[in-house]
Design goal:
Elements: H1 4-29, E1 37-41, E2 44-46, H2 48-64, E3 69-72, E4 84-92, H3 94-99, E5 105-112, E6 115-123, E7 128-133, E8 138-140, E9 143-145, E10 157-161, H4 166-175, E11 185-187, H5 192-200, E12 206-209, H6 214-226, E13 230-232, E14 246-249, H7 254-261
Parallel strand pairs: 3-4, 10-11, 10-12
Antiparallel strand pairs: 1-2, 4-5, 5-6, 6-7, 7-8, 8-9, 12-14, 13-14
Length: 262
Amino acid sequence: MITRSDLDRSLRSAVEAASAAGGVLAHGFSSSDKGARAKGHPNDPVTAYDRRAEEAIVRILTAEHPNDGILSEESAESKGTSGSRWIIDPLDGTNNFLAGIPHFAVSVALAVGNDVVLGCVYDPIRRETFTAVRGEGARLDGRPIRVSGRDGLGGAVLGVGLSHHPRRRAEMIEQLAPFLSRAGALRTLGSAALDLAYVAAGRFDAVWYLSLDDWDVAGGGLLVEEAGGRLTDLLGATCRDPRRGIVASNGRIHAEFLHALG
């Protein structure tokens, strides 16, 4: 059981760690050699700055919470002994980072057992800090945020996550057809964490992905829920495995969105 003081301290640690990693990324963004190499797939690169940002996060979290486990995109999982686990993505939007597109983020979340209790998504270029604590709402730079008030797909601003896997990408493009004449705008920005944060802040009305990992969703998903939105799998059920796809929305258009997906 996590106490109120532990939760406050953990949130401060999350913000500190995300900010430190963001500083590493902001510095590396202008570098001509980012040390990129292919990871599991040619379209899924990792850079030297992914590693350096991860090291900055882990250094802070292990110093302040030595008994907690850590699950990160770039390293083997550390189990810990406290029952709490940090879920981190040190650089969400690596392809943008490599291409010189200033749209990427750091995501740090804390889970107690299977429940994410706090999350932080930090945009180091815009210096925007999105935070959420379970049961206490979502914030942007300390100010409360809410999902949009749109109640239909007509005119909606939708975020689309195109996979780096060609087959999944083709499948997603096929699923776009019902939205082409109904949505106000379709955007594929290249960072799932920021897409979810933008739903929480009312910038997007909904986003969907065919497949993500825990570190892509943990922080941003809590932001959506705490801002009054809804996060499910592609069938509208509780999202237990983001690798099977997610839909996040303001809640009001969720059923219509899922129906359009078929």
